[in-house]
Amino acid sequence: MIRVILLGAGNVAQHLYKAFYKQPAITIVQCYNRKGVRLHPDQNENNVTKNIASIKEADIYIMAVSDDAIKTLSSQLPFTNRLVVHTSGSVPMIAINNSNRQGVFYPLQTFTSDKAVDFAKIPICIEGDQEKDLFLIERLALLLSKKTYQISSAQRNILHVSAVFVNNFTNHLFSIGNDICKENNIPFEILHPLLQETAKKALEINPNKAQTGPAMRNDTKTIARHLKLLSDPSQQEIYQTLTKAIQSKYGKKL
Amino acid sequence: MIRVILLGAGNVAQHLYKAFYKQPAITIVQCYNRKGVRLHPDQNENNVTKNIASIKEADIYIMAVSDDAIKTLSSQLPFTNRLVVHTSGSVPMIAINNSNRQGVFYPLQTFTSDKAVDFAKIPICIEGDQEKDLFLIERLALLLSKKTYQISSAQRNILHVSAVFVNNFTNHLFSIGNDICKENNIPFEILHPLLQETAKKALEINPNKAQTGPAMRNDTKTIARHLKLLSDPSQQEIYQTLTKAIQSKYGKKL
C-alpha cells in the first residue's frame, strides 16, 4: 500500500486523483490546496485541507502545482525528511527544498480539465535522489502506466524543449493551416486525413525519412508562388524559416 | 460504366490503378507511360503502351504525372475534345492543353509506394471546365471516396500551401524533436503519445483554442532556458520565429 498526499488543485492534481483513486494499492490520505477544494465530487471533505500545518503523514507527497510555486511550497511544508516530488517537466528536482527527500513524478501529456485521461497510455518520467525513493516512485508510476522512464533533470529539460516543438509549435502550424482555409472558404476537414497521416508516419518511421514537399525537392517555383499567396507576414516568415531549415538539413545529402 | 485511361507510372498512378481496378463500375481501358511498365503485377501487358500514338478511346484520361510534365504531355495527346484531367495539388486546371476538355482529380494525401492506401478515407478535390465533365469526374471520385469536394484552382492552391504547413513543416518539427532526443540518449517514443494527442486535438477542436506552451503563457524564463539548450542555429531560429508568431497572434487577447 502506498500512502499519497496530493498538493495542488489544478488539472494535473485532478487527473492524478482520479487515477490513484482507482488503484487498490494506493491510498490518497489527504489533499492540500490553498482554497481547500475537493479534487473530485465524491471526495470526503475531511480529507481536504487548506491548512498547511495540518498535513498528515504519508509515504509520498506529490506537488501538482505551477512551476513557480514548487520552491516556495516545498519550503513551507511542516515536516522534514519525507519524500516530496513535483510533477513539472521543466523544473529541476533540486528546486524542492532539501529539508525533505526529493523526487519527480512527471506525466508527459497535455491535460485538459474536462477530458478523461487514460494514464496507461501516458509516459511517466521519474527521478529520485535516493535509491529507495526512486523505487517507491517507480512502483507508484507503474501502477498507472507501464511506460515509466527514469529521466534525469537535464534530460527532462531536453524532453520539455522537444515537446514544445512536437506539441506547441506543431499546433501553431495546424492553426495556420486552419486559418488559411477558413479565409478562403475551404473546409479545414479536407486536410484532416493528411494531418492524421503525418502524425501516424512520424510514429512509424524516423521523421527524417518522411520529409517531403517543395523545400525538400528544392522546388523554387512553388515556394515563390506559396509565399505570394500568404498575406500574413508572420506566416511568410515561418514559411521561409522552415523552408530554409529543411533545405539546409537535407541539402548536404542532395 | 466509366472507361478510364491512366497516364503515368508513379505512386499516384499505381494507387489509383489498384483503387479503380476494384470498382465494377470502372474499366481501366489502358495505361500509358514512357517506359511501358505495368502498374500492377496482374495487369495484362496488352493494356500497357509506351507509344503515345496508340492511346485508345476512353471517357476520361487521368494524367498522374509530375507537375512539370502536365503541360507537355497534354499537348502531345493524339486526340482532341476529350476529357483530360490531372492529379496535381498545385497546377491550375488550365495548364492542360485546351485542345481537350479540362478537369482535375486531386486525391489529397501523401502516397508511399509500398504502403496500402484506403481511398475511402482520402478527400478528393475535383474541378471541371464543363458541367457534364464535372459530373463524370464527381461520379468517378465518389466511387472511391464519399469525401469528394468541388474545389477551384485558386482554392486548390490555398489547400496546397496549407498542406505544406500541416504536413511538410509539421514533419520537420517532429524531426527536430526526434534529433534533440537522440542526441541526448532519450527515446523519442516518450513523446509519441503527446504527438498523437496533438494531432487528435486538432481534429476535435479549433487549433487556435488548443494553443498552450511557454510562448502562449509568455513564460520568458522558460523560453530563454530552451534557447540556451538548443545548440543548432537553425533550431534556435525556428524556436524564436514560432514563439514570436504565437505571442503576436494571441498577445492581443491577453
Automatic annotation (TrEMBL), chains A, B:
InterPro entries to which the protein is assigned, alphabetical: 6-PGluconate_DH-like_C_sf (IPR008927), DUF2520 (IPR018931), NAD(P)-bd_dom_sf (IPR036291), TM1727-like_C_sf (IPR037108)
Annotated ranges, domain DUF2520: 122-245
SUPFAM superfamilies named in the record: 6-phosphogluconate dehydrogenase C-terminal domain-like, NAD(P)-binding Rossmann-fold domains
Pfam family, one: DUF2520
Listed name of the protein: DUF2520 domain-containing protein
Lineage: Bacteria, Pseudomonadati, Bacteroidota, Flavobacteriia, Flavobacteriales
